[in-house]
């Protein structure tokens, strides 16, 4: 699975951005898709995930501000980010977890930088 992430950029605190992740194959065949982020000096962390059935989960730090969704027809997952804070600054990575031969395998996009200025 190849993933192409886009939509990052520079935004002021309180602003919004929408990230997109386009997959090279039908996302209906992918167990879970999600967004992770890695700030400088920190480990990569889960931001939001969405299953093939549409169940979602969020990191506590983004609940109520971020929303993940999927467009199966476009094989694309979105991350709508509102009320952005400087601490949301990070490289955001799209992730796909696909089960192959009974084993879940992770695929990663190239990352897109989100910078939130105060």
How would you explain this protein's 3D organization?
The protein has 118 residues and is mostly beta strands. Helices cover 0% and strands 57% of the residues. The protein has strands spanning 3-6, 9-12, 17-23, 32-38, 45-51, 56-58, 66-71, 76-81, 90-100, 103-108, 112-117. Strands 2, 4, 5, 6, 9, 10 and 11 form a seven-stranded mixed β-sheet that branches. It has a four-stranded antiparallel β-sheet with strand order 1-3-8-7, with no helix packed on it. It is globular and about 45 Å long. The mean pLDDT is 96.
Task: Looking at this protein, list some descriptive labels.
mainly beta; four-stranded antiparallel sheet; globular; 118 residues; single chain
Shape: globular
Q: List how many beta strands DSSP finds.
A: 11
User: Which structural category do the helix and sheet elements fall into?
Assistant: mainly beta
**Cα-atom Rg, whole angstroms?**
14 Å
Biggest beta sheet attributes: 7 strands, mixed
Detail the topology: elements first, then pairings.
Elements: E1 3-6, E2 9-12, E3 17-23, E4 32-38, E5 45-51, E6 56-58, E7 66-71, E8 76-81, E9 90-100, E10 103-108, E11 112-117
Parallel strand pairs: 2-11
Antiparallel strand pairs: 1-3, 3-8, 4-5, 4-9, 5-6, 7-8, 9-10, 9-11
